[in-house]
Design a protein that fits this description.
binds heme C, 16% strand, 3-stranded antiparallel sheet, alpha+beta, Cytochrome Bc1 Complex, Chain D, domain 2, two-stranded parallel sheet, 28% helix
């Protein structure tokens, strides 16, 4: 974009003061505990459930003890038989995101690899691999075979930005080894994904589905390159297809199902929504392994865990009125970033918790799927999301990501080590915004990054 066009656009853009304000759903904590805080306004009963849920999220789970051997009733029993981590917190470090391993030989931590075969599976979702299911479980309890190991290596590609600034982008390469149940086959599809931040999820859930659908229709009516779509996914409790909202491809409809799905797929825990251990027919040791009383995550525990996720507040912005940040905020609008990273939403009049209702929030996401181009494609469809589609991730709290977890990565597979690298990977529907960002003078780019850092 030429400078004068940009200047004209900037002058025309009013800057709503609300963008910078810390609304009711935010907390002032800027420490490494910034993502751990409850919303203000929870009732004592909700707060009690929230605290119970925090224990279930934070504490490690163990495998069922031998018959007759008593365990401390506070111990969380039911891990595995196959799993990726022993606690939710193990991947969602201090409720923030995970990261990708830094080098070729390093085991994944805070991320996982989704698997499938081409074609639709049950209810239009991904088609699981017969011997492995839809996710590679790289751990197992003693006596049970883990499914396999996944490693990432990188080739670094240099990008030259306007003014000569250089940035190195890591192009990831996935390698799967130590397979427990035979080869995956040439048709297997892979999607490595890092854990997402979990704070603010209740507020995202409280945005009315109709408002999101209306926004998608508005984007399409503009006839420009940005054409977001709502994913349509299976809701187990309702027994029907509903709009998707959570996960990197908006492949989960609700926090309850997302939590129960993670408990089952990532830790092996059963629940009313997922009554079966995630052992495939070929995995006999897994099927025969010791169980505790079923389900591991009772309805009451799932309710507590869901209340915890719903009740997590968002950190307030820092330095939102600094001149560079304000310039960056205007550029964010002028470049077209705010089209997908929609700054402001209003939550519904009613919500799962009273504190979530009627709030004006600033997640910087449209919750829609966008074709992000071949560079970011995983080639693995997920319900209506194609192999090139990703849901716009919220950007609130982004500036604290590395303070909370020094290993936190950006983008779905953690390939980006900074917000700058994340923006440089944008393509497809975001290609024009990315090109305009690259063409900016370095000082303007730095202002955009200062703005992102203030979120
Ligand atoms: C092995 C690492 C790992 C573990 C353990 C794990 N998660 Fe996750 N979590 C992820 C990944 C990866 C995603 C993105 C999933 C996707 O896109 O399909 C995710 C996504 C989520 C989201 C969606 C956030 C959003 O805004 O869309 C929530 C909520 C969540 N996890 C909760 C939990 C809970 C609750 C537990 C424990 C029962 C848990 N997770 C255990 C890795 C993990
Ligand atoms: C067409 C929609 C779209 C536009 C326009 C867009 N983004 Fe994004 N953005 C996305 C999607 C989708 C992702 C996630 C991609 C992935 O994970 O592979 C993303 C990811 C990001 C991330 C990483 C967030 C994280 O937590 O990993 C940052 C930072 C970001 N965008 C900033 C920007 C900026 C700055 C601009 C403008 C120059 C911009 N985006 C324009 C859709 C868009």
């Amino acid at each position: 974009m030429r400078r004068w066009i940009l200047a004209a656009v900037l002058a025309a853009l009013p800057l709503p003061p609300a963008w910078a304000a810390a609304g009711a759903p935010t907390v002032a904590d800027q420490s490494i505990a910034a993502y751990l805080q409850p919303l203000s306004g929870l009732s004592p009963a909700e707060r009690d459930l929230f605290d119970q849920g925090r224990t279930l999220f934070d504490r490690p789970w163990v495998m069922a003890p031998k018959a007759g051997r008593l365990h401390d009733p506070a111990t969380l029993v039911g891990l595995g038989p196959v799993y990726n981590d022993i606690s939710c917190l193990g991947c969602h470090v201090r409720n923030g995101g995970g990261g990708a391993p830094d080098g070729p030989g390093i085991a994944m931590h805070g991320m996982l690899v989704r698997l499938s075969l081409p074609g639709p599976g049950p209810h239009g979702g991904p088609l699981p691999l017969p011997a492995y299911g839809d996710q590679l479980n790289d751990h197992a309890v003693p006596g049970v075979t883990a499914e396999g190991q996944a490693r990432l290596s990188y080739i670094v590609r240099t990008v030259v930005l306007a003014g000569g600034q250089r940035a190195g982008l890591r192009v990831p390469h996935l390698k799967v080894s130590d397979l427990g149940f035979g080869p995956l086959g040439a048709k297997a599809l892979f999607s490595p994904r890092i854990a997402q931040p979990v704070y603010g999820g209740g507020l995202l859930e409280a945005i009315p589905a109709q408002a999101v659908a209306d926004y998608a229709a508005r984007q399409r009516a503009q006839g420009g390159p940005v054409r977001g779509r709502v994913n349509q996914v299976w809701d187990i409790a309702l027994g029907r297809t509903v709009p998707g909202r959570f996960g990197w491809k908006a492949n989960q409809p609700s926090l309850a199902q997302q939590a129960a799905g993670a408990a089952n797929g990532d830790m092996g825990l059963t629940s009313p929504l997922f009554p079966d251990k995630n052992c495939r027919a070929a995995q006999t040791a897994c099927l025969g392994a010791r169980r505790g009383p079923q389900p591991d995550l009772t309805a009451a525990r799932l309710q507590a865990l869901t209340t915890y996720l719903r009740g997590l507040a968002v950190p307030a912005r820092r330095g939102a009125q600094a001149p560079a940040v304000l310039r960056g905020e205007r550029l964010f609008g002028a470049l077209g970033c705010a089209e997908c990273h929609r700054p402001t939403w209003k939550t519904g009049k009613t919500a799962a918790l009273a504190a979530l209702a009627g709030q004006t929030i600033h997640p910087y996401s449209d919750l829609l799927l966008h074709d992000m181009g071949p560079g970011l494609a995983d080639g693995r469809p997920d319900f209506q999301a194609s192999g090139r589609d990703w849901r716009t991730p919220p950007l609130w709290g982004l500036g604290l990501a590395r303070r909370v977890n020094a290993a936190a990565g950006f983008l779905h597979d953690g390939r980006a080590r900074s917000p700058l690298e994340a923006v440089l990977w944008h393509g497809g529907e975001a290609g024009a915004a990315q090109a305009a960002f690259i063409a900016l003078p370095k000082g303007d780019r730095d202002d955009v990054l200062a703005f992102l850092n203030s979120l």
